[in-house]
Write a structure and sequence with these properties.
The complex is a heterodimer of chains A (183) and B (441).
Chain A: H1 20-50, E1 62-66, E2 76-86, E3 89-101, E4 107-110, E5 122-124, E6 129-131, E7 138-139, E8 145-147, E9 156-157, E10 159-162, E11 165-168
Antiparallel strand pairs in A: 1-11, 2-3, 3-4, 4-9, 5-6, 6-7, 7-8, 10-11
Chain B: H1 2-13, H2 16-23, E1 26-28, H3 37-56, H4 66-75, H5 80-107, H6 116-138, H7 143-157, H8 163-171, H9 178-210, E2 225-227, H10 228-253, H11 275-286, H12 292-308, H13 310-313, H14 325-350, H15 357-368, E3 376-377, E4 380-381, H16 391-394, H17 398-406, H18 408-411, H19 424-436
The chains are: A alpha+beta (183), B mainly alpha (441).
Chain lengths: 183, 441
């Protein structure tokens, strides 16, 4: 199209169409309008599409009870209710953790799941061992493996003491691995 | 770069004739800003389709999850509230754009021979869009959605012989529930888009076969034509961008709060339909008793049939509106009735005298007497006595309230509400406050 400034072009059909700089003006305004709509839509739509990819699984500190009532050096099972969010759904589940108060006052908290294949273990006060009933793994009070097929020590959960209450952040770990890998 | 790519493709696909067909469509009398409404409507449909697809990423069409998933979109998803706002205001804008498109077509007599089929397809498209609006309204599954749909379906039930059957089919059974929500969802996102796309294709096909109508002059031979591109394209694009900016501004600045989650047992809730159904909602208030079916289905059916077959009712071949007094008169009468009813309805709903000091006084008395111990207003207060959120709407009678406050049992036998020792001034103020409570949110 090499038309210079000239009266509107009349093709065979006998109707007119603007040419030259007028045509260029209409073209660019059309492109600009399309760009406004395109960008104005693309940003929110794509933003909403990728938004969940950036949502971190929210882990909240859960209050599992007063620290005072924990006997020092002897593991205690603490039950609590935790809320699990899945998109727009919320489910509450009962979780238990094993807490061991250290002589200095801080608390070690273990995930209640055996690191071998995911069974629940218990503390045997007579033998001073954590015993897993499924395959016979056993752990000492620090969580280290004493015997059985368990590949790694018990998994520790983040814990802190605030205002005399023990707060725990519950997590799940993959079982059967040599290293502790969070789910 | 883009032109080289185009040339490369053109050498293989022979695109030039396609381009000519799409863009060199002759417009009799030249391009005009008055012709933009069809393109705007088409754009808004594309906007609705795009925003709808992205809302569907997060929406769950079951009574257990619908409300929570919409709230999730509103509060958790980045831009979720904005996409939902675009979809909401896009729907309203589409009704406006179709209205203007039909008004232009009517005024220009563009439905006359040989364009009767295009008009009829257009009327069907309009009805499909209204069905979109009706089915989409239920999806958030809040109180407004639930009760407005309940009323809409019950109206279908008033049609003799087939009404009961139809309302059961619409609901998917006896009660409005899980089956209703899932079928409204499927109709809204699968059936209607398919129908609408087919209808749009037919509408445009007919347009290209008969050509645009152009101005209403009788001397058509003297009209110079102009190609669709670039000037009409430019006009369409400018107005489309402006419409988008308006819709985006509305979505950005006006939040769309959900009312409470749908509660089938709360019969005190008074729903208000979308503004484009308000005229009809108002009409229903004036027709009671044996005449009610007249308003619920006889009149709508007649109006739809008249609209559909209008090109065969108005057989006057003249297109100039000045010389079509009968057609213009009936069109104006129709608009007058619709907008009159809409105006009255809006006035009743929203024209609460906000500056009335009696309302503020009444609100203070309400707080002072501890009425909120038993009554609830907009989610605050007890639940042992009726919810007063929309009491001014459900009971607009001032005398009733005055009598009720003096002696509740006199107008509401069995009520356990105590008598309060109030002065006449206080009674009046409290009543003014009650009458001001009209909106669900």
């Amino acid at each position: 199209m090499s038309h210079q400034e000239e009266p509107d072009h009349r093709p065979e059909g006998g109707f007119s169409t603007p040419v030259g700089s007028r045509r260029t003006f209409f073209h660019w305004v059309t492109v600009a309008a399309a760009a406004v709509v395109g960008v104005g839509l693309a940003v929110p739509l794509l933003g909403s599409l990728i938004s969940p990819a950036f949502m971190r699984r929210r882990r909240a500190w859960v209050d599992v009870g007063p620290v005072d009532e924990l006997p020092a050096g002897r593991p205690t099972q603490l039950d609590h209710v935790t809320t699990v969010r899945d998109g727009w759904q919320e489910a509450t589940s009962h979780k238990a953790v094993w807490a061991v108060k250290q002589p200095q006052g801080d608390v070690t908290v273990f995930s209640p799941i055996c690191t071998h294949l995911g069974c629940g273990y218990r503390w045997d006060d007579a033998e001073k061992k954590f015993l897993c009933p499924c395959h016979g793994s056993s752990f000492d009070v620090k969580g280290d493996v004493l015997g059985g097929p368990a590949p790694r020590p018990l998994d520790r959960l983040p814990a802190k003491v605030e205002g005399g209450r023990l707060l725990v952040m519950y997590k799940d770990f993959k079982s059967g691995l040599r290293d502790s890998v969070e789910l | 770069m883009s032109s080289r790519l185009y040339d490369w493709l053109d050498r293989r696909l022979n695109l030039k004739p396609v381009q000519r067909t799409l863009l060199d469509e002759p417009i009799p009398g030249g391009a005009s800003w008055i012709y933009v409404f069809g393109s705007v409507t088409l754009f808004l449909f594309v906007l609705q389709a795009a925003t709808g697809m992205f809302l569907a990423l997060y929406y769950a069409p079951t009574p257990d999850h619908a409300y929570d998933s919409v709230r999730f979109i509103e509060t958790e998803i980045t831009f979720g509230w904005f996409v939902r706002g675009l979809h909401h205001w896009g729907a309203s804008s589409m009704v406006v754009a179709i209205g203007l498109h039909m008004l232009q077509t009517f005024l220009y007599g563009a439905y006359k021979k040989p364009r009767e089929v295009m008009w009829m397809v257009g009327v069907v498209l309009f009805l499909v869009v209204m069905t979109f609006a009706f089915t989409g309204y239920l999806l958030p599954w809040d109180q407004t959605a639930y009760w407005a749909t309940q009323i809409g379906i019950n109206m279908v039930g008033t049609v003799p012989l087939i009404g009961d059957f139809f309302s059961r089919v619409l609901r998917g059974g006896e009660i409005l529930g899980a089956l209703t929500l899932s079928r409204f969802f499927a109709i809204h996102v699968l059936f209607l888009p398919a129908i609408l796309i087919g209808g749009i294709a037919l509408h445009l096909f007919v347009l290209r076969r008969v050509g645009p109508a152009g101005p209403w002059t009788d001397d058509r031979a003297s009209l110079a034509s102009e190609t669709f591109a670039p000037r009409q394209v430019y006009m369409d694009a400018v107005v489309i961008a402006a419409v988008f900016l308006v819709v985006a501004t509305l979505a950005f600045s006006i939040p769309l709060p959900l009312t409470d989650k749908a509660n089938p047992s709360d019969t005190s809730f008074v729903p208000v339909p979308e503004w484009y159904f308000l005229f009809y909602y108002e009409l229903l208030k004036y027709v009671h008793g044996p005449l009610e079916p007249l308003a619920t289905w006889v009149l709508p059916l007649c109006v739809i049939l008249i609209m559909l077959f209008w090109p065969f009712i108005d057989r006057n071949p003249v297109r100039n509106p000045i010389r079509r007094p009968a057609a213009l008169g009936s069109g104006l009468l129709f608009l007058f009735v619709v907008f009159g009813l809409l105006g009255i309805s809006l006035k009743n709903l929203y024209a609460v005298p906000r500056t009335d000091p009696a309302v503020a006084q009444g609100r203070a008395i309400y707080a002072q007497l501890g009425c909120a111990g038993c009554h609830r207003i907009h989610g605050e207060g007890g639940a042992v006595a009726p919810d007063l959120s929309t009491i001014g709407y459900t009971r607009p009678d001032r005398a009733w309230h005055l009598k009720h406050f003096r002696d509740p049992q006199s107008v509401s036998p069995g009520s356990f509400m105590p008598k309060f020792p109030l002065t006449d001034q206080q009674l009046n103020d409290l009543t003014s406050y009650m009458l001001s409570l009209k909106r669900a949110t």
